[in-house]
From TrEMBL, chain A:
It comes from Marinibactrum halimedae. It catalyses: 5-[(5-phospho-1-deoxy-D-ribulos-1-ylimino)methylamino]-1-(5-phospho-beta-D-ribosyl)imidazole-4-carboxamide + L-glutamine = D-erythro-1-(imidazol-4-yl)glycerol 3-phosphate + 5-amino-1-(5-phospho-beta-D-ribosyl)imidazole-4-carboxamide + L-glutamate + H(+). GO terms for biological process: L-histidine biosynthetic process. The gene is hisF1. This is Imidazole glycerol phosphate synthase subunit HisF. Keywords: Amino-acid biosynthesis, Cytoplasm, Histidine biosynthesis, Lyase. The keyword Amino-acid biosynthesis applies.
Automatic annotation (TrEMBL), chain B:
It catalyses: L-glutamine + H2O = L-glutamate + NH4(+); 5-[(5-phospho-1-deoxy-D-ribulos-1-ylimino)methylamino]-1-(5-phospho-beta-D-ribosyl)imidazole-4-carboxamide + L-glutamine = D-erythro-1-(imidazol-4-yl)glycerol 3-phosphate + 5-amino-1-(5-phospho-beta-D-ribosyl)imidazole-4-carboxamide + L-glutamate + H(+). CDD domains: GATase1_IGP_Synthase. Heterodimer of HisH and HisF. The keyword Cytoplasm applies. One of its GO terms (biological process) is L-histidine biosynthetic process. GO terms for molecular function: glutaminase activity; imidazoleglycerol-phosphate synthase activity; lyase activity. Its EC number is 4.3.2.10, 3.5.1.2. This is Imidazole glycerol phosphate synthase subunit HisH. Its main location: cytoplasm. Keywords: Amino-acid biosynthesis, Cytoplasm, Glutamine amidotransferase, Histidine biosynthesis, Hydrolase, Lyase. It comes from the Bacteria.
């Protein structure tokens, strides 16, 4: 009897539509985030992460409406990230029915924002998203830095130190994405996942690079992640959530 | 038969729409109201008492609304009440959170911190908050009807209830040690997990609550 490791499908949503494509065999309109979320819910996903990549602030109203719709039909935890910059942004997402919000660049620009958000809404709903990239040379000890703007902009901030600081400031969970691995299907960066998971008290979600089910197992067993996040392997029907869970269970991982 | 009403008590701590929409989904015939009105709460057939965030803020808000007296009265009247998460913790006598907070004292026992650096038997690091799906082992109670013993529910908390009266323990969970996942005392039931986020098992528990007469 133990806490299950979580499998979290991630939806990238632009102006109310799922982008990057989601192809379920028997759904015609797989671009509707509500339909996609319901599908993953029924398939046994442990949580859903909704990443809002809507470019303009004006279109955020669509996101709020979509989150409301998902939350009224899907009874598992929902995290919303992307463009969370103010306490009002957090309030509107939580009021729409999100259980957690994920803060990324706004934390880098103003770490105090995380402290304020956590004090105001509680650490349980504040996820800090960290985009990390390996910066050490081959003959050096491993070192990772935080990048913003989808991995394009270096910040000079050490990822491990940053994760510890964010937890001290009140993050209740860390969503760690390897920018070296994101989209590669080569598997998680297990080094940074393990280093951060060992260093902080709060749960760590591994993200970036999943190409097969062994990668999910490695994320938990070698990376010591508490949850694994993936998009494309599920979206394109390469694997179902239940296949992923069955595979993890075979490898001795506790799943729901 | 007149339509039954469930009041979801709103004392300003967090969003209650998830709880309300899960109740509506579980019991479509029931009128679900999110309310901070004593009148609405007194008139309702059943009461859901939720809570999120820090216990200090929750207790301050509860006292500011005088909901401590109101809830105590409603429970004495025999009305079915369901406490959820911090809404369970505040029913006890005392919490270690925020350097120690006196709570409502409607159930004997206290609320304790999991601690740091927890390990399981395989020496894996157990993170706090305890976040995710864990197994709940049930005792006999009508709110578990139709839910398999050991079914998983969604938890997110760093503090847990230590009941003083073991007869009130209605469900246990394990995270480095066994802790109380559910308490039942006559017409009062309280859960540490979030039924509104616990998929089918959670919806079934809410459905059971929606028809519960308050008899254990």
């Amino acid at each position: 009897m133990a806490l299950a490791k979580r499998i979290i499908p991630c939806l990238d949503v632009d102006n109310g539509r799922v982008v990057k494509g989601v192809q379920f065999v028997d759904i015609r309109d797989a671009g509707d985030p509500v339909e996609v979320a319901k599908r993953y819910n029924e398939a046994g996903a442990d949580e859903i992460t909704f990443l809002d990549i809507t470019a303009t602030h004006q279109d955020r109203g669509t996101t709020v409406a979509t989150v409301e719709k998902i939350a009224s039909e899907v009874f598992i935890p929902l995290t919303v990230g992307g463009g969370i910059r103010t306490l009002d942004d957090i309030r509107s997402m939580l009021n729409a029915g999100a259980d957690k919000v994920s803060i990324n660049s706004a934390a880098v620009y103003n770490p105090e924002f995380v402290r304020e958000a956590s004090e105001k809404f509680g650490a349980q709903c504040i996820v800090v998203a960290i985009d990390a990239k390996k910066v050490s040379a081959q003959d050096e000890p491993d070192r990772w830095e935080i990048f913003t703007h989808g991995g394009r902009k270096p910040t000079g901030i050490d990822a491990l130190e940053w994760a510890k600081k964010m937890v001290e400031y009140g993050a209740g969970e860390i969503l760690l994405t390897s920018m070296d691995r994101d989209g590669t299907k080569d598997g998680f960066d297990l080094g940074v996942t393990r280093a951060i998971s060992d260093a902080v008290e709060v749960p760590v979600i591994a993200s970036g690079g999943v190409g097969n089910l062994d990668h999910l197992v490695d994320g938990v067993k070698k990376g010591k992640a508490d949850a694994v996040l993936a998009a494309s392997i599920f979206h394109f029907g390469e694997y179902t959530i239940s296949q992923a869970k069955a595979h993890m269970a075979e490898q001795g991982i506790e799943v729901r | 038969m007149t339509q039954q009403t469930i009041a979801v008590v709103d004392y300003g701590m967090g969003n209650l729409h998830s709880v309300a929409s899960a109740l509506e989904h579980a019991a479509p015939d029931v009128n679900v109201v999110i309310t901070d009105s004593a009148h609405d709460i007194e008139r309702a057939d059943r009461i859901v008492f939720p809570g999120v965030g820090a216990v200090r803020d929750c207790m301050a808000a509860i006292r500011a609304h005088q909901f401590d007296q109101l809830m105590s009265r409603q429970i004495e009247l025999g009305k079915p009440v369901l406490g959820i998460c911090v809404g369970m913790q505040v029913l006890l006598e005392h919490s270690e959170e925020n350097n120690g907070i006196e709570c409502m004292g409607l159930l004997p026992g206290k609320v304790k911190f999991f601690g740091k650096g927890l390990r399981d038997e395989q020496d894996n690091h157990l993170k706090v908050p305890h976040m995710g799906w864990n197994e709940v082992h049930q005792t006999q109670h009508p709110l578990w009807n139709g839910i398999e013993d050991g079914a998983r529910f969604y938890f997110v908390h760093s503090y847990y209830v230590e009941a003083a009266n073991s007869e009130q323990i209605a469900g246990v969970c394990e995270y480095s040690e066994r802790f109380v996942a559910a308490l039942g005392d006559k017409n009062l039931f309280a859960v540490q997990f979030h039924p509104e986020k616990s998929h089918d098992a959670g919806i079934q528990l809410l459905r059971n609550f929606s028809v519960w007469t308050g008899n254990a």
